[in-house]
Amino acid sequence: MPHIVVEYSDTLTDAFDRPGFGAALHPVIAKTVDTAVAGCKTRFRRVEDAFLADGAPGLAMIHVEVSILSGRDAETKRELSAAVLEVVRAHVSPVPGLTVQTTVDVRDLDRDCYQKHEVAHPA
């Protein structure tokens, strides 16, 4: 925990610095919600088939869903959402002729039901 899922238009594949985004994002999340960077997990999903707005060409999207353990107040979640949006913006290069819609959603994981298991295997 936290779990981050990023969906992005395939037209942004070369413009979206995903490793840089993950490296910058995890410390921001850890600081904002008081957790460890080691627990952050980000998955990227390239979207090849999406219909945006009125279907006009030249539109792309990035949607970031951040799932954190329940118990944080609304202000912390708003702060996290704004911080994530800034990190995204810093890691996407402009693509001529493309308008990028970026959204962030912060969700709660039920603290009473969430489970984690970790096994370290010796090298």
User: What is the CATH top level name?
Assistant: Alpha Beta
Mean pLDDT: 96
Task: Give the termini distance in whole angstroms.
Answer: 25 Å
Shape by Cα distribution = globular
Radius of gyration: 16 Å
Instruction: Pick out the low-confidence regions.
Output: none
Biggest beta sheet summary: 4 strands, mixed
CATH topology: Macrophage Migration Inhibitory Factor
Percent in strands = 25-35%
Total individual domains: 1
CATH H level, superfamily name: Macrophage Migration Inhibitory Factor
Helix content: 25-40%
Estimated structural class: alpha/beta
Write the CATH architecture name. 2-Layer Sandwich
Number of strands: 4
Strand numbers in spatial order across the main sheet: 2-1-3-4
Task: Give helix and strand order, one letter per element, not per position.
Answer: EHEEHE
Number of helices: 2
Can you describe what's shown?
The chain is an alpha/beta fold and 123 residues long. It has one domain (3-109): 2-Layer Sandwich (Macrophage Migration Inhibitory Factor). Helix content is 27%, strand content 29%. A 4-stranded mixed beta sheet has the order 2-1-3-4, covered by helices on one side. The longest helix is centred in the middle third of the chain and has 17 residues, at 74-90. The chain is globular. The mean pLDDT is 96.
